[in-house]
Amino acid sequence: MRHVALRLGRNLMRDLNRPPPAGGKMFLRFHSTDSNPQLPENLIQIMEQKMRAIEQRNKFLLDQINQPSTNPDEFSRANKELRKLETSISLITQLRSKKHETDELRSLISNSNEEKELRQLASDELALASEEQKKLQNSLFKSLLPKDDADVRDCIIEVRAGTGGDEASLFAMDIFKMYEKYSAKNGWKFDVIQVTESDLKGYKEASGAILGNGAYGRLKFESGIHRVQRVPVTEKSGRVHTSAVSVAILPQADDVDVQIRNEDLKIDTYRSGGSGGQSVNTTNSAVRITHLPSGITVAIQDERSQHMNKAKALKVLRARLYEIERARVHMNRSKLRSEQIGSGDRSERIRTYNFPQGRVTDHRIGITHHSLNDVLEGESLDLFIDELLLREEMDAIASFN
User: Does residue 14 register a pLDDT over 80?
Assistant: First the structure.
């Protein structure tokens, strides 16, 4: 039955996300042609169970923070959870009220003792109230779908040249700049953290911080191997080579998410150097931080200030440690999700950029776009991202119960 739920999920999410056409009503796949799709009865029943559970949890948390015996840590955790429940509780309250209103209107319409005009007026009001009720149901349904709390966060992007030598480093630069342009398109701030250039001025490694609401949620499925097929600038015979670049998208973490003890760090400083070993700075401004428990090492030398390089290195280290913990917690994510949109693992081949044919193919969703330049300019990247996020929502619907 799960494949049925997935097909239902695809239709439902597209109906929920599709705006109605100007001057007309939206065609729906369910039980009406109204502007809001009617949720299937089985989903409404499951949603009712979740509503009751949320109401009970909200009451428990309110009682907890009002207890004199609640310690500061418990108060803080309960208050934080209450804030997360605010939107759902507001929608539940509105939905309960609207359902009460529609029940009363139906009762009035079915009462043969009432005047005909009054019953007709109630029938007109019921049509409006029922539409509002469906709208609230849809909003609440979307809010109840399983979500990754990290989706709203800023993110760290790390790009590394893989197989292919200098050609891989040149493509790594193209990919890094693609995300920089995509960030600008979305109004996000893109801060370069570190770039290590190759002899041909490509990027052996590059990392950046993308600051914008929901940046991680949009980009999280970009992690993996990006493969390029093109004629390298160093190729004399015109033969097409295949190279690869790895991309990692990490949610940014703060001190609350990851606590790093000073005694767990080994911090080295050294003079920064550029490509080919030429001197960039005559002071020990470059910083290398090793996290002893995990063995993770981060080296930053882009800034002339040792303090700024250390701050950047700690930001990257914190993001990597946070992602390790998240991976451990989510190790048992659904097999279906992995099959549909990939594991998100940076070792997984996700996309091929074929320059001779001018196309980009995403292997997880089987979509090919025949305007490679638009993708690299950040203009058509949403074609893949939107479909990947739709698949994620479909999986959430399939596992809703």
Answer: no
